[in-house]
Design brief:
Elements (H helix, E strand, L loop, with lengths): L3 E3 L3 E4 L4 E8 L10 E2 L2 E3 L5 H11 L4 E6 L2 E2 L1 H13 L3 E7 L1 H11 L4 H14 L4 E5 L6 E4 L6 E5 L3 E2 H5 L4 E4 L2 H18 L2 E3 L23 E5 L2 E2 H12 L3 E6 L5 H12 L3 E7 L6 H9 L3 E6 L6 E4 L3 E5 L5 H4 L4 E7 H17 L2 E8 L5 E7 L2 E19 L21 E13 L8 E2 L15 E3 L5 E5 L5 H7 L7 E4 L2
Helix pairs in contact: 1-2, 7-8
Length: 498
């Protein structure tokens, strides 16, 4: 027979164990994105946002002004080159410096290396046709056509890359003439007074000097900005949050600004229903998200490609912007936003509500293990770690040894072992086994002897090398008989014959 037997298992209920700061699945069904709602356009696979940008450029007769942190979209490139070559439209482009792109884009997403390289090649192809300037702080995204004669255009949360305009959760707002004109004034100041380098020919980006002749325009027509000494974008963000009475819905790629986080926490604690839609997984903002979730903010992971920045307060006032909710964007840099009200704010609210309804994950400040299902994520150092939650699991505690078969019932079960790495069980069955003693090697059999009453031993007696007298039995079915005879024959233990 085997020299081990199972110990008595026991079941441990871990369903009430608490896990802190965990991303859990919502179970929400996925939903296709509607291309547009009023003036609000979503990025989606059908390319509606791509075409809207290209159409704005194609309609230009005199001037096109383009600002984009990153530029690598073939459709927009073709439209700009066609405008410059075929229609002699003057095309001006603002982009981020290559140094910042190398630092931020590559650092945040390893797959973006290809896009950065395409950005550089595209700029070289535009050289000589498009007037390009760059600066480390440029981050705004918009396209304006003919600001003096027939102003039109779009403010975007998306960089001008194919992926951002079709794959990401992004937004665009069709601008009214007065908004386009106000944004054009901001562009003109940034291009001439805030740029650091210009592209004169392929591969050459020499530094430029600001002429200090063009004043920074004042806020106008709902266009807010971070630019030069202007901080009206920050003011607009804080006012929207502070004045919300019933609900706040925000979408952002990043959040860490202390003033914004404090105000959101205060609003949530005062009963405003605050929902924060974020990119997930993105570990960089985990600390801020946890703090907000603990204050009662509903933090939802929309997708790994969410990049939109928008706010809706009470469904009646809104803001779409290029800045993240971070000091770099609200205090430094070149950023822009457009304030929305009435039907436009309601349209934005509907778009964000659709993202909210389809969000696949939610950050929970705390949750019982019994409430969780499937894969969840927790922070592990600088990144997220996946855990699989299962209703039942079994943990093998290992082996306990006894030196005599008569001590099986008193065998001490081994210390509890941890749940296997990467798993959480709501109920755990702990199993273990008992290793039975076998006749020691070198044990010496004794000749048959009788007890004081003349009875012979029921089993062979051996003396182990250490001097212990034992009964050697063939199986546990003989244990009771061996136990009863131990004292009569001076036997100290019962072991298996082996």
């Amino acid at each position: 027979m085997s020299n081990s037997i199972p110990g008595t298992p026991w079941v441990e209920d871990r369903s009430n164990d608490i896990i802190q700061d965990v991303w859990a699945r919502t179970g929400a069904p996925s939903a296709a994105r509607a291309p547009s709602t009023g003036r609000i356009i979503q990025a989606e696979e059908g390319g509606t946002l791509v075409r809207a940008v290209a159409e704005a450029v194609e309609a230009a007769r005199d001037v096109v002004l383009v600002s984009s942190f990153l530029f690598a979209d073939p459709a927009t490139e073709r439209a700009l080159l066609d405008a410059a070559r075929q229609r002699r439209v003057r095309v001006y482009l603002l982009v981020a410096s290559e140094a910042r792109l190398d630092k931020e884009v590559r650092g945040d997403d390893a797959s973006a290396t290809t896009i950065v390289e395409e950005h550089k090649r595209l700029l070289d192809r535009l050289a000589g046709w498009v007037y390009v300037r760059s600066a480390e702080h440029f981050h705004a995204k918009f396209v304006i056509a003919d600001p003096k004669s027939e102003p039109r255009g779009m403010l975007l949360t998306a960089n001008l890359t194919r992926e951002a305009l079709t794959r990401n959760h992004e937004l665009g707002v069709r601008l009214r003439p007065e908004e386009a004109r106000a944004l054009a004034g901001l562009f003109t100041w940034a291009f001439w007074e805030s740029a650091q380098r210009e592209l004169l020919e392929e591969g050459r980006l020499p530094p430029v000097t600001a002429p200090a002749r063009i004043p920074l325009p004042d806020p106008a027509h709902g266009i807010v900005a971070t630019a030069g000494t202007r901080r009206d974008l920050r003011a607009a963000v804080l006012n929207l949050i502070a004045q919300a009475k019933r609900s706040l819905v925000l979408a952002t790629f990043g959040i860490s600004d202390p003033e914004v986080v404090d105000l959101l926490e205060e609003r949530a604690r005062k009963g405003v229903a605050v929902t924060l839609l974020v990119r997930h997984p993105r570990a960089a903002m985990f600390e801020s998200l946890c703090r907000l979730a603990r204050a009662g903010v509903e933090v939802l992971g929309v997708s790994e490609w969410l990049h939109a920045k928008a706010i809706v307060a009470d469904g009646t006032r809104g803001l779409v912007m290029t800045a993240n909710l971070e000091a770099h964007g609200l205090d430094q840099g070149f950023e822009a936003g457009v304030e929305l009200a009435g039907d436009d704010a309601a349209d934005l609210a509907r778009v964000l509500a659709s993202w909210q309804a389809a969000a696949p994950s939610r950050l929970r400040a705390s949750a019982r293990v019994g409430e969780l299902r499937g894969t969840v994520q927790v922070m592990n150092g600088k990144g997220y770690r996946d855990l699989t939650v299962e209703a039942k699991g079994r943990i093998d505690g290992g082996v306990a040894k006894v030196d005599c078969c008569t001590r099986i019932a008193s065998a001490e079960r081994p210390p509890e072992r941890r749940t296997p790495d990467g798993r959480l069980y709501q109920q755990v069955e702990h199993v273990w086994s008992i290793e039975l003693p076998v006749l020691a090697k070198g044990a010496r059999p004794l000749p048959a002897e009788k007890d004081p009453e003349g009875a012979v031993p029921p089993f062979p007696i051996h003396v182990e090398p250490g001097g212990r007298r034992v009964f050697a039995i063939d199986g546990l079915g003989e244990l009771d008989a061996a136990r009863a005879a131990m004292a009569a024959f001076g036997v100290q233990a019962v072991v298996l014959r082996g």
